[in-house]
Every structure is written in structure tokens, then in C-alpha cells.
Write a structure and sequence with these properties.
Number of strands: 19
Distance between the termini: 25 Å
Largest sheet: 8 strands, mixed
Radius of gyration: 22 Å
Helix content: 25-40%
Oligomer: single chain
Strand order of the largest sheet: 5-6-4-1-7-11-12-10
């Protein structure tokens, strides 16, 4: 889909013409916990039934739909009678264990009423960050889609800890969308889109119906999570948008605080559309660029940055600083002299050797390291360069 926009700050109120959801080939829909679970009464059966009707309508139109659903911990709290407030890790994991069963059963029952089958997929961060596990997960989900089943995906909160978790399903949904080459990612939440400032804090905040690119100006508009059950806020949604858009996937942020929330988008209810990159990266580079937790960080000079943007590899001579403890083949983030992330790539050196050769010319590397070494610190085939961000006034 091609998305064109003028300056978003000048044209917030114009009507955005969008294709119907039925025109997309594959859609990932992310459901926030607060939409599914009421603190007092538990699962919101009527709302889930209306979502099921929307999914069935899309499936009948030939659209492949994947659901990334929060709610297991929130639902498990009700099932186990856990008190309000923060939970200890083991309590959260116990709540997830009880809630996942209830959640999967609820989706299966709702979808079966429309003649659809559901398949549950539980993922951890490692399942999308480690290449082999990423390919296995993609194959499993792809097989479910070929069998006309609706994958219902959640983070495996029964085993995930702070160090090995996504922490929010916005970015998980984006990773799933890029993994399966979806055309559209829909984030249903308790807010109807992006505003120039958090609307619950600033009554003068203005709504943005269309965002062509997620720039630092756009990121500055993000606020924190407003819901008791939410882990993420607008920042994680914009993080998700960057992952999805770079791979050629459009994204919509829309309110789920209504029945039939997907039909409401088609009916013109307020939502924000984030246009996909006009030059999406290939599958291999999609995996690299979407990696959420780079193992290290390189800072490069202006000359190296210009070389990367012209399609060249990153040479050691242009590296000014090396941070982190990483191994050859790990994903590292590359920052320009302005402090902005400029690229991500698979490093050809361990961190100790990278630090030793940083700033040195290629013909000096073998002497420094004592062995015949690669000429590039990151080869261009293993490098994803971020689009150049416009400066003020552009």
C-alpha cells in the first residue's frame, strides 16, 4: 500500500482515505488486556464475541488473520483470586498459567461459533531473536494459516523473566507481523490513535490520522501506559511501528473500547494509520532490523555514516567507540555522531577484538589481532541502515 502525507502537524484534521481491511492479504491484530478483562467480572464475553464476528467476516473475505492477545495474567488473577496491585514474579507466572488455559478456551469457543479453528502459540523473546527458533516459529504459524486456522499468539509468561521477555505485546505483534510478512498490523488499545501529546494530560493535544514516518518529532509525542493492566504505552506502539513499517507492513492504532472494533475501523471511526516504508528490507534484514535487544553498540564518525548510507560496509576505521559484551554474529546497534541510531547489523568480531581495531585502517587489522581478519566490521549484506531522518525545516 502506498501512503502519502503532507506535514502531519499541519494536516491532522483532514480525512484519510484508506483501503478496506478486506483488501489486505494478511493482518495481525493485537488485543490489549484491558479490552478483554474486567477487573471485577473477568472476561468480557460480549466484546470478545463481537471481535470474533469481525475476524470471521475478514476470513470469509479471504483475509488471513492472526491474533496477538494479551490478557492471560489479567484473566489468571481473577481465576486465582489474586489481589490488586503488583504481583511477584512467581505470582505473575502462576496467573499466566491459569489464564492461558481460560484465554485459549475462550478464543476457541468464539471462533468455532463461526466455523473457524484456533491454534495457540506461546512465544518468548528468544523465539524471535534466535534465528533457528525464529524460523521454526514462522513455519508453525505459517502451517496454521495454510490450514485455515486462526493463530492466537501470546508471550509465554509462565516461563519468561524480566531478562528474557518482550514485556509488551505491541512489539511482539510487530515481530509476528514481520515474521509472517503481514500487510497490516492493527493495535487495538484503550486509545484511538496518536496525538501530539498524551490527551489525558494535555487537553489541547491534537489527533493525527496519518503518520508517514516515525521521526524523533513523532516519538516525542508518546506518553506512558494509562491502564492498570497495560505494560506498554504509546512509546511501545511507536517501537512496534518502526519494526513493522521498516519491513513494509502498515500499522493502525485504534481504540478497542467499542464492540466490533475492526468493523469500526472500516466504518471510519478515528484511528491513526502509519504508512509502511516505500523501500522495505528483505526477509533476512527484516530479522536483523527487528531484533529488540542488540548485544552491543558502536559509535561511528560522519564519514562512516555517509559510507553506510551509500550502500557500503562498515569498516573499523570509522568506528569511534565500542560498548557491550558481544560475540561474533550478534546483533549490534550502530549510532552516528549525532547520537541517533543509524543502523543495525551482525558484527564480524567479538567485542574485545572490535574494541582493539576500532579506528584502525583495514591493512592494520591483521597485525593488531595476530590473524588474518575480515576487512569489514559489519558487511553490508548483514547491515540494515535506517532511513535518514529529516532535520528541522526539511
Amino acid at each position: 500500500m502506498s501512503v502519502k502525507s503532507a506535514n502531519v502537524l499541519d494536516e491532522f484534521d483532514r480525512v484519510v482515505q484508506r483501503p478496506k481491511l478486506s483488501s489486505y492479504r494478511r493482518i495481525v491484530v493485537k488485543i490489549g488486556s484491558a479490552l478483554l478483562v474486567d477487573r471485577a467480572s473477568g472476561l468480557k464475553q460480549q466484546w470478545l464475541a463481537s471481535l470474533g464476528a469481525d475476524v470471521a467476516a475478514l476470513a470469509a473475505a479471504g483475509v488471513e488473520v492472526l491474533i496477538v492477545s494479551s490478557g492471560a495474567i489479567a484473566l489468571g488473577r481473577n481465576v486465582l483470586g489474586l489481589p490488586r496491585g503488583a504481583l511477584r514474579l512467581e505470582e505473575s507466572q502462576a496467573a499466566a498459567a491459569a489464564g492461558q488455559i481460560e484465554l485459549a478456551k475462550a478464543y476457541a469457543e468464539v471462533l468455532s461459533g463461526h466455523g473457524l479453528r484456533a491454534g495457540q502459540i506461546l512465544l518468548t523473546l528468544s523465539d524471535t531473536e534466535e534465528r533457528r527458533r525464529y524460523l521454526n516459529a514462522r513455519a508453525t504459524i505459517g502451517t496454521l494459516l495454510r490450514m485455515k486456522a486462526i493463530p492466537v499468539i501470546n508471550e509465554n509468561d509462565t516461563v519468561a523473566t524480566t531478562e528474557i521477555r518482550y514485556g509488551d505485546n505491541d512489539r511482539l505483534a510487530a515481530r509476528v507481523a514481520t515474521m509472517l510478512r503481514a500487510d497490516l498490523l492493527i493495535l487495538l488499545s484503550d486509545i484511538d490513535g496518536l496525538y501530539t501529546a498524551p490527551p489525558h494530560q494535555n487537553p489541547d493535544a491534537r489527533f493525527l490520522p496519518l503518520v508517514e514516518a516515525i521521526t524523533p518529532e513523532i516519538e516525542a509525542m508518546a506518553g506512558a501506559a494509562a491502564s492498570e493492566y497495560s505494560r506498554g504505552g504509546m512509546k511501545t506502539k511507536l517501537d512496534a511501528g518502526k519494526i513493522a513499517n521498516a519491513a513494509g507492513t502498515a500499522m493502525i492504532i485504534a481504540s478497542g473500547n467499542r464492540l466490533n472494533p475492526l468493523a469500526a475501523i472500516d466504518a471510519g471511526e478515528r484511528s491513526t494509520l502509519f504508512g509502511p516504508s516505500p523501500t522495505p528490507v528483505n526477509a533476512w534484514k527484516t530479522w536483523i532490523s527487528g531484533n529488540l535487544e542488540p548485544s552491543g553498540r558502536l559509535v561511528i564518525d560522519a564519514g562512516a555514516l555517509a559510507a553506510l548510507r551509500s550502500g557500503k560496509s562498515l569498516l573499523a576505521a570509522g568506528v569511534r567507540d565500542v560498548a557491550g559484551d558481544f560475540m561474533r554474529g550478534d546483533t549490534v546497534a550502530v549510532y552516528g555522531p549525532d547520537g541517533q541510531e543509524a543502523a543495525r547489523g551482525l558484527i564480524a568480531y567479538d567485542s574485545a577484538d572490535a574494541a582493539r581495531i576500532a579506528g584502525h585502517k583495514t591493512n592494520e587489522i591483521s597485525t593488531i589481532l595476530g590473524y588474518d581478519a575480515r576487512s569489514a566490521m559489519i558487511h553490508r549484506d548483514d547491515l540494515v541502515v535506517r532511513a535518514k531522518r529529516p532535520s528541522a525545516g526539511e
